[in-house]
Specification:
5 strands, 35% helix, five-stranded parallel sheet, globular, single chain, alpha/beta, Rossmann fold, 6 helices, disordered C terminus
């Protein structure tokens, strides 16, 4: 069985996420999603709308996802060591270098291929989706989410 590992915040699951997960699953038989913990998300300036437990429950309902694991707050390679994937698929917007990740997994004694996924389409980001919603309201000043709290 070929194991594929992906990771992300998955703040609000949208069409871009679904495309990413479906395409990643094509690289193997078993798709493992590493979900960023709330602490990790905030540290990387992604403000979770839902807790990691709620985001995990949503992802577990998706047919293409076989397993969801909340990532470690400090050691992002902990899940890689535990799951020993054959392939790691990075999203187009993830900052990790493919080469560096391959080097790190080799140091752990894990031989896996690292692939960078291409962008699905423009306009599919949680920040942009939320900003469109805020801007479409008559009085966005009363909305608890402001443009300043979002990465745009």
């Amino acid at each position: 069985m070929k194991r594929v590992l992906v990771g992300g915040v998955f703040n609000i699951v949208h069409a871009g996420h679904l495309f990413f997960l479906r395409e990643a699953k094509k690289f193997g038989d078993y798709l493992i999603v590493v979900l960023a913990s709330d602490m990790t998300a905030v540290r990387n300036k992604r403000y979770p709308i839902f807790s990691s437990e709620k985001r995990k429950k949503i992802l577990e309902k998706l047919k293409m996802v076989d397993k969801v694991v909340v990532g470690d707050n400090i050691d992002f390679l902990k899940v890689v060591r535990n799951e020993k994937p054959d392939v790691i698929v990075l999203g187009h917007d993830q900052k990790m270098s493919e080469k560096r990740l391959e080097q790190e997994t080799k140091k752990l004694g894990i031989e896996c291929k690292v692939i960078r996924m291409k962008k699905f389409r423009r306009g599919y980001s949680v920040s942009k989706i939320l900003m469109k919603e805020i801007e479409s309201r008559d009085d966005p000043g009363h909305h608890p989410i402001t443009k300043e709290k979002l990465l745009i």
